[in-house]
Structures are given as C-alpha cells and as structure tokens.
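Lab notes, practical 5.
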Amino acid sequence: MPRKTSKDIERDKLARFERIKKAIAALEKQQRQILKQGELAPSGAWVARYQVRQNNKKYWYYKLQVPTPYFPCATSEELSKYKHLGKAGTTDHIDAVMSVFRRSVIDEIQKLIRSLDDCLLDITSGAEQEEEKPQD
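Output from the prediction step:
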C-alpha cells in the first residue's frame, strides 16, 4: 500500500474537519428546535413525587425540585428549591416533566458540541499525533 502524500493527508484532514463541522451544525439545529418547543427546567432539576396524609387518607402530589433555591415563594421574597405541580397529569405536572426532558437533551447536545469542538482543535493544531516521551 503506497504511503500517503502530504497532499492526501491534508485532504483527509479537511474532509474530517468538514464532517465534524456538519455534525456540529446538525446538533445546533436540533438544539434550536428543542428550545422552540418550550421552557427549559433549571439545571439539575427533577420532578419528585411526594405524599401528604390528611384525615386518614393519603394524597400524592408532584413538585419540581432543584438542588439550590431557584423558584420564587408565593408568601415571601425568598427563593425555594421546590415548585408545587399538583396531581399527576395536571398541565403544570406535564409541563415540568417535559421541561426537565428538554433540559437533559440540551445538556447532552452541549456536551457533544464541546467534544466535537475539541476534535476540531485536535485536527487544526496537529495534536492528533504527538511524540511519545520515552519512559524510564
């Protein structure tokens, strides 16, 4: 098999660079489409189910929860870690579930874009192939 010429190597680099750029563009397009679908939950948010006992009965409710205070309280100026969503299947409950879903997809897309950006840096900087230092 003949050795690749420097022209072939550059052509290969350019082709790989262009494929990565197209992949990034496709991911960014997906990101824009998801953002158009609705609100994003705060970073790290999840929907939690909780139980209330009253008059010898159990009631199940849902809340949107975050690790640090984020939501405005109805009764004070302070922020809360929780946003009450009500019963399963309410509009608030479903909207919250979908906002958490959108947030997780957007976060994953952003990770992929950062990873592909690193690939572009490797290609353009020549860091794909490094000299190995001899070990003692």
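Observations recorded by the TA: The chain has a mean pLDDT of 92. Residues 65 and 82 are 5 Å apart (CA to CA).
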